[in-house]
Structures are given as C-alpha cells and as structure tokens.
Amino acid sequence: MKKSLKPLKAPPAKLSSPMKTAMRAASHAVALGGLLVGGAVWTISQQHPLYANPGRLLRLPAAVVDASAPTEQAFRIGEVLNQYTHDRALAFRIADALVDQADKEKIDPALLVGVLLTEDNTLDPHARSSVGARGLMQVMPLHGGKWGCGSSDLFDIESNICHGVQILKEAMRSAPNTRVALLRYNGCVRGRNTPNCHRYDDTVLKHAGRAAAEMRLVKTQKAD
User: Fold this and answer.
1) Beta-carbon neighbour count of residue 159 at 10 Å?
2) Nearest-angstrom CA–CA distance, 24 and 9
3) pLDDT above 90: residue 109
4) What's the pLDDT score for residue 192?
5) Residue 192, CA distances (Å) to 42, 92, 171, 185 in order
6) 3 state DSSP class of 139
7) Does the global pTM surpass 0.85?
C-alpha cells in the first residue's frame, strides 16, 4: 500500500519591510486628506455665492472669509450694489463695510450708499479723480491715516469707506442740516470747486432714496 503524501506546508507570509509600511501609511493619509478637502469645498459651495469662489476667498480679509453669511441689512445693500457691478463679491464686501461704519457712527446706511453711488457708480476701488480724490468715496490723500481706520491706503475698500464716513460725520456735526453737510463733503462750500456742485446733495439723496426703496424689496430668508 502506497504511503499517502503529506501536504506541503504553505510558505510563511513575507513580512512587510519598514519602507513599504511607511509608504502604505502615507498613501492612506493622502487619500483621507483628499476626502477632507473635497468635503470642505462642497460645504463652501453650498453657502452664499460670495464665498463660493476659492480664488476670491484668498483675496478677502479674514473677517469676511470666516463669516458664514452677511447680516440681513448688508445682504440687502449688497443686492442693490450688485446692479452696478459684475463682481458680486465686490458688491457684498462694500456692503459689509458700509453697514459696519453706519453702525459705528450711527448714520443711515442708505445715505452712505447715496454718497458712494454719487461719487463712483462704477464701484471701482481704484478710482481717481482729476484732482486726486481716491477710491469709492473719493477721499483726498491729505486725509489718509486719520481716524484710526486701520490703513492709510485709500484704495483699500474698508479703509476708504472708513475715511469717507469720518469726513461725512465731521461735516454733519458742524452743519445745520444734512444737505449742507453733503455739500461740505463734496467741497462745495462756495459752489465753485466743482461745476454744478450745488446739485450734489440732490443727487446723493436721490440715490439714497432709491437704494432704501430697493432694499425693502429684496427678499431674504427671514422675509420669506
């Protein structure tokens, strides 16, 4: 009788080298990181369109990037300003700055919108007038660095609006009424600095009234 053959023992499993183990761990970490980044981008894309563009996020101040959504008032103003520019992010950044300064100085934000649209309805932060006034609120360089606005750069959106609001606030403090304050803001004290500057207050108030009416019509989640 033939002797039954004993089955051969399976060769012992080869142990992974330390290098292979490290490479495997690294690949797992990269895959996990990819999932996390993908989830973060998806989350941002579900928020307000202002924060949906990663390129724009890198150019915005930290305070704007961290915000989950603008306030209701800033949202309404942003929607109004968005009619004057193709850059939605710019419109809402300006709106945030206007509301911030309006709250600090107790000035009607619609009036600030009126001044801004009168000075530059193209919403160009780098606008420069023939006499050297700069930015959205057309602030003269001699005012740069005053009032603790955080920066003397008058082409910076937040700094420019801060300077402009402070100039208007000082004019309102010494003027008998809003119309005179607006004329002083424009440098139209004697009516000869700018052609037809005596119409400046009418133009500002017209823009302000229209902005206020349009703000009331903007639909928000709270209103819905």
Assistant:
1) 21
2) 29
3) yes
4) 55
5) 56, 35, 18, 14
6) strand
7) no
Q: What are the C-alpha distances in Å from 141 to residues 129, 133, 157?
A: 11, 7, 15
**What Cα–Cα distance (Å) separates residue 13 from each residue in 10, 16, 36, 191, 211?**
9, 9, 35, 95, 77
Instruction: Measure CA of the first residue to CA of the last residue in the chain; give whole Å.
Output: 93
**pLDDT (tens digit per residue) in 35-85:** 443 443 333 233 333 322 333 333 333 333 334 456 999 999 999 999 999
Identity at 42, one-letter amino acid code: W
Q: Cα–Cα distance between 16 and 88 in angstroms, integer?
A: 55
**Residue 48 C-alpha from the chain's centroid:** 12
Quickly list H helices, 67-187.
72-81, 88-105, 109-119, 157-174, 178-185
> What whole-number distance in Å separates Cα of residue 116 and Cα of residue 138?
8
Phi, psi angles (nearest 5°) of residue 134: -125, 145
**Read out DSSP for 51-94?**
G--HHHHHHS-HHHHH-SS--HHHHHHHHHHGGG-S-HHHHHHH
b/e per residue 43-75 (b: at least 16 CB within 10 A): eeeeeeebbeeeebeeebeeebeebeebeebbb
Joined together, the tokens standing for residue 17 give 């080298």
C-alpha to C-alpha distance for 106 and 86, rounded to whole angstroms = 30
